[in-house]
Request: fold
Amino acid sequence: MRVPERDEVSPQQLIDFLAKAERPLTLREIATQMDLRHKGRRALAKLALRLKRKGELEELPRGRFRAVTGARANISAAARARRDIRRAQQPVQTEVRQAVSRDRHPQDEGASRQRGEHPSDAGLIRGRLVAHKDGYGFVVPEKPIKDIAGDLFIGRSGLGDAMHGDEVLARITRREPDGRAEGRIIRIAHRAHETVVGLFRYGPRENAVLPYESRISEVVIPSGEEWSASLAEKYGVRRPAKRERLPQLDGAVVNVELLRFPSGGVPASGRVIEVLGRPGEMGVDIEIIIRKHHIPHEFSTEVLEEAARVAHAPDSNTVAGRRDFRELPIVTIDGETARDFDDAVYAERRGTRWHLQVHIADVAHYVRRGGALDREARVRGTSVYFPDRAVPMLPEALSNDVCSLKPNVDRLVMSVLMELDEHGEILSAEMTPGVIRSAARMTYTDVHKILEGDAETIANYEPLAQHFRTMRDLALVLNERRRKLGSIDFDLPEPVIEFDPDGRMTDIVRSERNIAHRLIEEFMLAANQAVARYLEKRGLGFLSRVHEKPDAKKVLEFEELAHAFGYSLGVPGLAE
Reply:
């Protein structure tokens, strides 16, 4: 049954191997019998879990796997229904995966698999598990459950091998007259944690990692998994002998890949894949947050190579066909610590009217639909900012270079050109691809100083000073228009963390908001409004933020509270 040594194994190879096996095998047994090298062993656990989610592998107690083939794969819908009825009558300790029946339409099967659905999911409650450190949890439903108040309580015996944050399917087992309900988890649709970050501790018999997420129990690290050959190679430290303790590992912050999920009182197990440092060391806290929330922070070789291919400054061919705004004194206005500049503005007075331009970096020019960059950006969704660093959505060759509107260099943009009347109402708007050359990288502080008449700052930016005054006047007009329309201005201070040159936090102070902040906010709101009208007029779908009507009970409670202080919402009889 032995096969030649290999670096990794394909999904079909793993399924075929387990289908021929005489008994279910653990991941270690699979890796040994398939002669997988280090890279293949690391990938094996993820591959097995992926196939398990698809219903092509079945995980049994004690971390053993078997292929779902032949008679096991052809369980009828009726058999599955009978199985679910039996499960509803007795506690379930472990999750059982069954294959999707083969008589479904391929398109239906593909759509269902994307959501982790099985034919027997009818009547199950889908939601997110919020676990408690004492061993029970609640399923927060995706949709409200009829005649059920709040979340679905899951006792310790009903959790199976689900963990905090998992997307699960649960069945109601008991209803109370007051609307509360209890249930148990039937299946995990999506795992929230393939890795766990925590504090490593050696033990007398086995080692453990204490997760920083208090709602996840400790993870057992079997002997030999605390310092694998790959870790030894990565950090240049030899693998320890049996029962030897590495001083650099005991008490260190580590990232662990889960090999077995907790079930029936048996804790999860895993292996150390990263050593992040010691608690309290510079930067370790940020590394913990990144891994605790599973923020993608490394780019694949494919993504970096595509970024390198496309990240070239605009040339004459690229600029051809775009509106040229390079002669205008367009500027970016951001905070002192901003790392990238993705929007720029320009305004001028035209008689009694106003002309406003908002330019946004044209990232779509570089990120082609369906490419490696596009797929990676969809996974990340946004850049994540920390006090001293950022985890970008796109590689720095794009985010901090060709897609950053740096001063005195040509940059591609998507532009919104607006004509406004004397009251700030948008009369017309045009959207167009363009090219700009930012005249200056301005900060909120310097723009505020210019508008406050600071002589030194005005002298430094003499050619631009009058343009900032024009922008201020337009921003005030736009703000007054919004106020008359009933806009609420939450002008609340934000905390600003200050660091010394070595990166150590020294103070937390209130941010200073000034007219320069309002200027950018008003211009961006106007641009958003213009774009929304443009898309809506053409019947094009787009994402928008919707503020639902307030709850009537909460409105009444607020009115009663405000009435005690002599205020009112102005609705007759509301406070009576």
The chain has a mean pLDDT of 84.
